[in-house]
Structure formats: structure tokens, C-alpha cells
Amino acid sequence: MSHDLATMVLGAFGALLVILGLLFFLRPRWLLGWLKGMAVFAIIVFGLYSLVIAVNVAGYQSLAGMQTVATISIQRQGEQVWLVTMKPRDDKNLTETLRGDQWQLDARIIRFSGPLRWLGIAPGYRLERLGGRYTSLEQERTAPRTIIGLGDRFWLDLWELDREFNMPFVEGVYGNATFMPMRDGAVFDVRLSASGLVAVPMNEQAREAVERWDE
Fold first, then answer.
1. Are strands 61-62 and 124-133 parallel, antiparallel or unpaired?
2. Cα–Cα distances in angstroms (integers) from residue 162 to residues 48, 126, 150, 167, 171, in the given order
3. b/e string for 94-121 if b means 16 or more Cβ within 10 A?
4. What is the DSSP string of 14-65?
5. DSSP three-state, residue 166
6. Average pLDDT for residues 152-159, to the nearest whole number?
């Protein structure tokens, strides 16, 4: 099921449950004691939770199998200063200046279980930040660093709620590409599976940078 369709289904289902629960409270004669009242309260809570899931799913890209989520292109600007262009899938290009010897792209991943998985909702991802790092430990501690935030914040962020409270039917996973070397003219593909990010060299400059870096 696509994320757009999942958002509409979950949103409509959640709103319906909340309305039905409120109707029970507006007509007290329908309540048959404490047990029915608790059942109504559970309906409202479940409906609100469905709405929270729907809002968050709308903010994530669908993840179905290994796919390219962004392309990273690098141009040298000076000593340990690089102009990095990120081309996300289905989004606008982002060009930023990063300092350091290596770069890393982070993402948030949400996986679904239980009834949400039965609906066929694919895992979702949201690019979180792009940052630079120095090879020297001393520079890493003292030199200026660059971290670019990429993701929008939600008032009720399902990923953060799951990490803190272990929410039902969802699993928030932090995925990041291993730090990769900066090199003038290098191009990398960043690919994402349900387990995390992988950076793949796409041209000779990138392959040479990785080969020399591993030596």
C-alpha cells in the first residue's frame, strides 16, 4: 500500500473512532457502567494513535527494497572545505559547504508490524542530516564542524515516541551511511534498505578515494 493511501485510510479510521467515542460520551444512556466507559476511552486512544501514525506516515518516503535515496556530489573549495550537493529522490537539490575530510548522511527509518503490516504499508524513511568529520581526532574536537539538518520536526514524532516508549505496531530505526572520504569531483549513490544506508562510489574519483582511504 502506498504511503498516500495509507495516510488516508489511517486518518479516516482514526477520525471515525474518535467521533464514535465522543458520541458515546455525549449520550450517557449508552454507557453501561465503568466497563463500557473504559472501552470507549480505549476506542478514542486507539483512534488518536491511528491519526498520529497517519500524520507521520505522510512525512516519510516509501521504502520498498534497496533503492537510491540521494546522490552526493563533491567539489573542493579549499583546505578541508567542500561544496557538497545532495540530490534526494523526489525532492529539491541541496548544496551546502561542509568542513572536514569525510561526509555522512543519516536517515530515520520506521518499520511497521501487526495490523499495519497486514495492510501492506511499506517501511518509510526520512533523511535526517548531512555532516562532515575530520580524520584527525584533535581537529574533530577543536575545529569547526558542519551538520546540516534535513528533516522537518513533527509535534508528535512517531519515531521519537517509539525510541522512548516502545510504541505498539511501529519500530523506529536510525540508519546512517558509514563516513565516506571527500574527494574533488567524486559522486556517491546513497542506497537504503530496511536495515540502513549504504554509500556506493559512482565514478573514478569516488572509487579512487575509497581505495586509498582503505589502504
1. antiparallel
2. 15, 15, 20, 5, 6
3. eebebbbbbbbbbbbbbbbeeebeeeeb
4. HHHHHHHHHHHHH-GGG--HHHHHHHHHHHHHHHHHHHHHHHHHHTSEE--S
5. coil
6. 72
Of 118-122, 128-132, 139-143, 175-179, least confident by mean pLDDT is 118-122
CB count within 10 Å of CB 23 equals 11
How far apart are alpha carbons 157 and 55 in whole angstroms?
9
65 contacts: CB under 8 Å, gap ≥ 6: 193
Residue 38 has pLDDT above 90, yes or no: no
Q: How far apart are CA 27 and CA 207, in angstroms?
A: 69
Q: What is the mean pLDDT of residues 125-135?
A: 91
Cell digits of residue 131:
555532516
**Directed axis angle between helix 3-26 and helix 33-58, to 10°?**
150
pLDDT, residue 29, reads 59
Q: How far apart are CA 80 and CA 187, in angstroms?
A: 17
Interior/surface letters 126-148, b for 16+ CB within 10 angstroms, e for the rest: bbbebbbbbeeeebeeeeeebee
Lowest mean pLDDT among 52-66, 142-156, 175-189: 52-66
Instruction: Tell me the CA distances in angstroms from 154 to 88, 163, 164, one per residue in order.
Output: 20, 15, 15
Single out the residue of 6, 50, 7 nearest to residue 42, CA to CA.
50
